[in-house]
Amino acid sequence: MAAKQSVNSANTNPVPRLAEIIAAHGHVAGPTLPTLHAIQAEFGHIPAEAIQMIADAENRSRAEIHGVVSFYHDYRETPAGRHVVKVCRAEACQAMGGEAVAAHVAERLGLGFGETAADGGVTLENVYCLGLCATAPAAQIDERPCGRLTPERADRLLAGLIR
Amino acid sequence: MSLVEEHDFGTPAVKSAVTVSLTIDGSAVSVPAGTSIMRAAAEMGTSVPKLCATDSVKAFGSCRLCLVEIEGRAGTPASCTTPVAEGMVVRTQTERLKRLRKGVMELYISDHPLDCLTCGANGDCELQDMAGAVGLREVRYGYEGESHTKLEKDQSNPYFDYDPSKCIVCSRCVRACEETQGTFALTIEGRGFDSRVSPGAHEDFLSSECVSCGACVQACPTATLIEKSVVEIGQPEHSVVTTCAYCGVGCSFKAEMRGDELVRMVPWKDGKANRGHSCVKGRFAWGYATHKDRILKPMIRARITDPWTEVTWDEAFAHVAAEFRRIQGQYGKDAIGGITSSRCTNEETYLVQKLIRAGFGNNNVDTCARVCHSPTGYGLKTAFGTSAGTQDFDSVEETDVVIVIGANPTDGHPVFASRLKKRLRQGARLIVIDPRRTDMVKSPHIQADYHLPLRPGTNVAVVTALAHVIVTEGLVNEKFVREFCDWSEFEDWAAFVADPRHAPEAVEKISGVPAAAIRGAARLFATGGNGAIYYGLGVTEHSQGTTTVMAIANLALATGNLGRPGVGVNPLRGQNNVQGSCDMGSFPHEFPGYRHVSDDATRETFEKLWGVPLSNEPGLRIPNMFDAALDGSFRGLYVQGEDIVQSDPDTHHVTSGLSAMECVVVHDLFLNETANYAHVFLPGSTFLEKDGTFTNAERRINRVRRVMAPKNGLADWEVTQRLAQSLGLAMNYTHPREIMAEIAATTPSFAGVTYERLDELGSVQWPCNEAAPTGTPIMHIGGFARGKGKFVITEYVPTDEKTGPRFPLLLTTGRILSQYNVGAQTRRTANTAWHPEDLLEIHPHDAENRGLKDGDWVRVQSRAGETTLRAHVTDRVAPGVVYTTFHHPETQANVITTDYSDWATNCPEYKVTAVQIAPSNGPSEWQEHYRDHAALSRRIKAAE
Fold it and tell me: What's an example of a GO molecular-function annotation for this chain (chain A) (predicted)?
């Protein structure tokens, strides 16, 4: 999932809008995941305030909501960069030379996996299988899947992301 | 002595009428259908290796250690999650299973620190045991790879540590928090290798939703969650089963000892009140027992402004005897009296009332139950014939719809609350009648179907309105009423409640509760199946406390909710032995067993036994003692284990009464607030230091067992006995069992109670006599103790304490989980981490009107007095209502409460005080005056 640029800057209070989103999902059976999806779609991450609010709305504990958020890698607790690069580290890609590509991408971006550039430009992440094994090594840049990666091809794809 | 061993069957017991037979390792075994293979094996004495299973929580099947082979089935299923089947042939030990288990253990140990010898759980670690059980001899993976062994400890909780480096992620703690405690404060965060136990969301234990009940620590198979006291002291070497001295739930604990040092208190699985569960108070808050503030030597002084002088026990007893005899000589026989304690044992309470009736020669004995559950005694005796709750706690497991009125069980009776919440999560329905939005109204996985947030003081109107709906909508259980009650009495009552002035629409105007909610709640209670009513001091501590108790009884009678499991009228008793102290004849008008002092036959029984004539005139109640002190006719008082200055209403009246007396004897663990007005201090002993019994809210008589010698030299019963001897009364018991024998010999409902029987059965619920030799879990089966159940007309009479322009808000008081009553015990433990001071809860609207913000100092003023404390702005209380606790003497909430009281029993009206709230910048005049006096009064003269 791409990190859609947040309409709410870090400085505005997210609570009123969170309340609206949570209320809008009040009628859904098993509302936790859809609510979290909607929040992430709007904010680009799950603001810390959301945990208690969802817990209250669903009559559950903070721990339970935190358990859900932390279980799914795609729910972020902090905003991602403007672009998200996910490099597959799973077995099929490893067999096709994916680890060299991964190391190259990390070096090129100057980021470790799980890190976001200081200027908020790019977030680099691991992913364990994108289902693109037939075109391994694979990655995903924002919403775009990329296959048959080589260090050179990766450079071309990343060029547009790096100022 | 050795440790009391409790066998872990791995999975919970299953109730089933069907029995299944199978073969395990060649032996035949029969168990109830639905039982796990693991439990079936355990019941025949075969332990299957396990880590994630324990019999307090449901099977989970994650550790993969309890695998077994089943003939005719492929693979190696987990024995914890596989139920038995008829004719099944199971093998728990085969070559294949050995190999698999060893492999699993190898993986666990490859990510576990190898510091067993210096680990706090050494000797009490299931991981260690399992490594031994599977014969682990090497870990082929080495310890070089990525691991969790360097993770930091969370030591924020004052009582236990969380060391994630030792965690095997079995989820036992998470499941215990959910299933046993019902708080849901823990989760497994992350996934895969990152999975770790997490309190709350990125929080430490102390700041999380955790209520520190200890269920997770109890469930943990390793040293991951471990008591700090075990880390500091080491493993206990023997243990003794005893009873908690905090609330009226009466939890059974194992006091685990090293010599005479208490290492930890562990809830006892066979305890019938708590079924292996505990709360933060009983489990952890016992440090007061060895607190440096404890006074261990008797002390006397001439004036309450003098410093104390330490004396020998002999000197102290001689002094008290001389003073009391002097006062009686000067002012008459009735010029002295005493107060028994609901915190002391039955035996001790019995002795105090005996001392007063036989030694003082009057009936001036009262008890702190006067200020809590005296209306329960009166009301339930009138309605059913017995001054006690009708059920056992197990009954809640069969209830379908619950009314909780004027009680806050998650704070006041936490272990019962956990049992109730478990039943609610299974689908029972809930009606909460309370001015505050308590955690029973809404908290994780709990939501009341109806919350009736009534104005304080309108209980009678609301409960009668519930009856109105039941009667006028034809929801009465006529069959029950015709069989077990007086029909014409019922008809009178039905005509009374059917009057339109009791209709919900009329009562809405008085109580502020929407009529529709009253109607809905009444219909639910009358038609929802087994209906049970649980109530607390929010019912009794009113000018119409007794009337509400009777209205509750009416409701149970009209709906036929009495005389079987799952129903009943259940007072939640405040202190550990409120029921017992009342049973033991603590009231000025009643001998043990609730027999009136004017009853000649009863008096004769005791006169014959005690060898002295006894008065047939009821004595003074506590508030009357203060009145009499002020008018000069009452001059001497013996107070055992109650802090009347802090706990009784209208502090000014109490302190002026005490100040007017000539000899006030306080018998307590600490120099409490009452001791500031005392002339003699007799040091008390803790529940760890004496033998005896407590009787809990379900009439259950539980043994209290001495695990260490009294630090003050004498158990409380010995102090009373020596005092009695000094007054010339022949009292020569050598052990509390002899006192219980006397109680049994004189009190019909206790006739069958002996220490031998208690040891044999674990506990007994009275009545225990020839008709019920093993006790009576549920009362009034097939008829009432008084014959017919009695319907009482319950006219609502508003309290005289009214709001007006000067005092526009209603103050109600209560308590909080981590503190207990006047706080003398819990304030001297690390429980202050959760509740360091009393706070005033005020609704945002009322706060805004007064320009108050959360945390501001405020002045609370009533017609009786004023005090200051900090405000907590919250919508838990309704607009117009404020709330505080009374745990801290600095606050002295009872300076504000009035001397209005219950019409029948004088139980104070703590729950309704008209007040005004204003910003404040310092303590009130009274607080300053009191602080000065307390400092002056607490001085102890250096020993010469």
Answer: 2 iron, 2 sulfur cluster binding
Cα–Cα distance measured from residue B765 to residue B769, given in angstroms and rounded to the nearest whole number = 10
Considering only CB atoms, which chain B residues are within 8 Å of A65?
201
Residue among B183, B188, B447 whose CB faces A67 most closely:
B188
Chain A residues with CB under 8 Å of B200 CB are 61-63, 66
**What is the token pair recorded at B257?**
């000892």
Structure token pair of residue A6: 């947040």
Query: From B186, which residue of chain A is nearest by alpha-carbon distance?
Result: A63
> Is B186:A66 a contact under the CB 8 Å cutoff?
no
Contact indicator for B835, B890 with CB cutoff of 8 Å: no
Whether A67 sits inside 8 A of B189 (CB atoms) is yes
Higher-pLDDT residue of A10 and B372 is B372
Domains by residue range for chain B, with CATH = 19-93 (3.10.20.740), 160-290 (3.30.70.20), 299-372+578-739 (3.40.50.740), 374-571 (3.40.228.10), 809-936 (2.40.40.20)
Q: Which residues contact B99 (CB under 8 A, 6 or more apart)?
A: none
Nearest to B758 by CA among B703, B705, B697: B703
Give the model confidence (pLDDT) of B328-370 as tens digits: 999 999 999 999 999 999 999 999 999 999 999 999 999 988 8
Q: What angle do CA B510, B513, B518 make, to 5 degrees?
A: 110
pTM of the model: 0.93
Q: How far is CA B572 from CA B110, B417, B478, in A?
A: 50, 11, 29
- Which residue's structure tokens are 């998650």? B410
Residue among B230, B343, B276 nearest B641 (CA)? B343
Using a CB-CB cut-off of 8 Å, the residues of chain B touching A61 are 183-185, 187, 200, 209, 444
Residues of A in contact with B197 (CB under 8 A): none
Reading the block at residue B73, the tokens are 């089935």
Which of B189, B209, B442 is opposite residue A61, by nearest beta carbon? B209
User: Is A146 assigned to a binding site?
Assistant: no
CB atoms within 10 A of CB B462: 26
Distance from CA of B440 to the nearest CA of A (A): 12
Question: Where is B596: in which H helix or E strand?
Answer: strand B595-596
CA–CA distance, B82 with B694 (Å, rounded to integer): 42
How far, in Å, CA of B309 to CA of B316, rounded?
10
ipTM of the modeled complex = 0.91
What would the two tokens of residue A114 be?
Answer: 């799980």
Q: Give Cα separations from B416 to B41, B325, B410, B411, B735 (angstroms).
A: 31, 46, 8, 10, 32
Q: Are B189 and B198 in contact (CB under 8 A)?
A: yes
Q: Do A62 and B208 touch (CB under 8 A)?
A: yes
pLDDT for B140 equals: 92
Provide the residue count of chain A: 163
Residues of B with CB under 8 A from a CB of A: 183-191, 198-203, 208-209, 442-447
The closest CB to that of B187, out of A48, A59, A63, belongs to A63
Contact criterion met (CB < 8 Å) for A60 and B186: no
Domains, chain A, in order of start with CATH, read: 15-71 (no CATH), 83-159 (3.40.30.10)
B445 contacts A51? CB cut-off 8 A: no
Contacts of B184 in chain A (CB under 8 A): 60-61, 63-64
Tell me the pLDDT tens digit for each residue of B784-835.
989 999 999 999 998 888 888 999 999 998 888 888 888 888 889 999 999 8
Sign of CA dihedral B90, B94, B100, B105: positive
Q: List helix spans (H) across B541-621.
A: 545-558, 578-583, 600-610
